[in-house]
What does this fold into?
Amino acid sequence: MKYFYFLAFSIFLFSSCRPYKSTVEKPNQKTYEQFRGEQNIFSSNDGNIHYIDKGKGEVIVLLHGVPTSGWLYRNMIDGLVDNGYRVIVPDMLGYGASDSPKEYDLYSEEKHADRILDLMDDLQIKRWTQVMHDAGGLWTWELIKKQPDRITSLIILNTIIYENGFNPPIRFKPGFFARTAMWSYRNGISTNAMFHKLFKSGLIENKLNKIDVEGYKVSLLEGKTRGMYYFFSNTCNYLPDYSSIIKNLNIPKLLIWGKQDEFLVFNNMKNDVMTDLNLSEENIHLIEAKHFIQEEKPEEINTLILDFLKH
It folds into this structure.
């Protein structure tokens, strides 16, 4: 097993692939600097949380996973706001522009959930629609476990639900190899290689340009890898069991899934998910995408979300 970790790390370390294919700037493309300039700051007990708060109306929270940030939703925010919603998009602690304190246990599912609830309390938002992706699902299940009445409806985007179908791109044991990998991401040694591998596996066609990828890379190069370290060295090896929460979730639910996802394979968990979440066929949408569906199909996702919320 140690040989596997060393081999995986070596591949990342020595690869020089670019994580983007296009150098052409897109029309009206927002830079990461501009995106950060629109963020507010919430001072949680564990560190500063940066977040977008845009629009008026019923509240939708867009929750990212690992190793992304609120930047993942940049192409969806305005479309939801223009349709009369207030959209909250946090960078979770350890990701994006938010702080990255040293304590290992600060990145547990429980702590992440606590900070979402604290943020919403600070904003005086009692109830909202939650959109979740990837590890954001785990943080959401934990939040529902703590305060089940806060979320009025749930929108599931390629989210961690059960071990079946969960195939993360990296798994580490805590210790030398995991710390060395994180060090190499922070210092730019294997950052490009990591994102090249991630987007190659996570997109049907990588149309991201340098500006797109910059929004993902900056936080790592700023040294924010502690949340990743916890996820890949703990969560990936000891996936929490939220089956009792999932089976008793009595709110409207919409599932939108990239059907070619290699990290979260829906067919491997389909029967359990449909049964336990009590999903109707009309609220299951398998779209032509892989894992990062917000990059591939942002307009289609928004259309499905808006139609679901209206009805």
